[in-house]
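Reviewer 2 asked us to include a model.

Predict the structure of this chain.
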Amino acid sequence: MARNLTFLSCDDVFFHHHLKTRTMFVIESDRIGDIISALHRRAYVTVGPAVRDGAIVLDEIRTMADLPARMHDEQTPGRYALHSNGTPSLFGYVVGPHSWKKFLSPARLKLFSAHRDGKEFRIEREDQHTKIRLAFLGVRPCEVNAIKVLDEVFLQGPYVDTAYEIRRESCFVLAVNCTRAGGNCFCTSMTTGPRATSAFDLALTEILGEGKHHFVVEVGSERGKELLSDVSHRAASTAEIEEALAATTEAAEAMAKRVDTTDIVATLNAHFEHPRWDDVAKRCLACGNCTLVCPTCFCSTVEDVTDLTGDHAERWRLWDSCFTADFTKIAGGNIRMSTRTRYRQWLMHKFAHWQGQFGSFGCVGCGRCITWCPVGIDITQELHGLRASPVTPKMA
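Predicted model (structure tokens):
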């Protein structure tokens, strides 16, 4: 397979920079349990990968035994399968249907309660603003970047989401670099992986070989350095650092899916009325799976509920999707009635409109939307098809 020269060049610079400025460490595989224990001693609720219902999901991790050892996932458009890979690897999978946003911005969040007090209502704010110490264990590089995207959405600008802010500011991020490419991954195209370069406390690269199973560790913060001091470790040799880099480079080279992001905003705007949108609409079920599994989709709705007496009411924020029929329903009607317009809105938001809003892409190349689409729609193929097609003028 041809080498991705641009990626390798960037990663080589990154590697040599770290050789000069940071010390890398090694911990043996059986010391992962010590990391979990050290997090618990610091009053963190540790969340990480676990096996449930035939998939890798995110759940509370109490001991090392909760991790999905020896598991390997296979992902193709519309298909996910999990099986044993015959090795003692702790992180041999890529990504499952859950993303970390479910903990930072929960799918259901009570905003406040209202209680009748005579002729008035007394408002009680919920305890979502209580500080919650979360530790994320096993965050893939694409997901580290997805959290950075959510930070931009919820924390930057004139309006800050306080509930998100409370969870995020005390969050410990333990990243795990990818040493294999999933069937639907395209993080190299989005420059979000397979190696984490920032926004983590600790980053691990799992090394498996004859008679060895250890992790090369990079410290990304003072908080990470302080926690590592509680875990048995040693300085990594140059050869061990090079081996870790080679493992992530091999994952990059094995990535089969690509997206050409050159002038993509102009390209998508020029194809706004292209017939390919009709073609994808014939296949799309408008089920919203892609938005639910996406690590960066943030659309929500607000729902008020009351009891039968009318003395108690609650306001909840719920995840929503731009694919639902009522998402764009307003007093004057529904702005996007067709599946065609909804799919176009979703894709263009990720790759075009997001640039204007936040100065970045809304996609990190994790491939979840491809895997968990019931009919196997592949966003990389849709983008390729639009780019390869002649421009269609906009309708008057």
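The chain has a mean pLDDT of 91. DSSP finds 13 helices and 16 strands in the chain. We have added this to the supplementary material.
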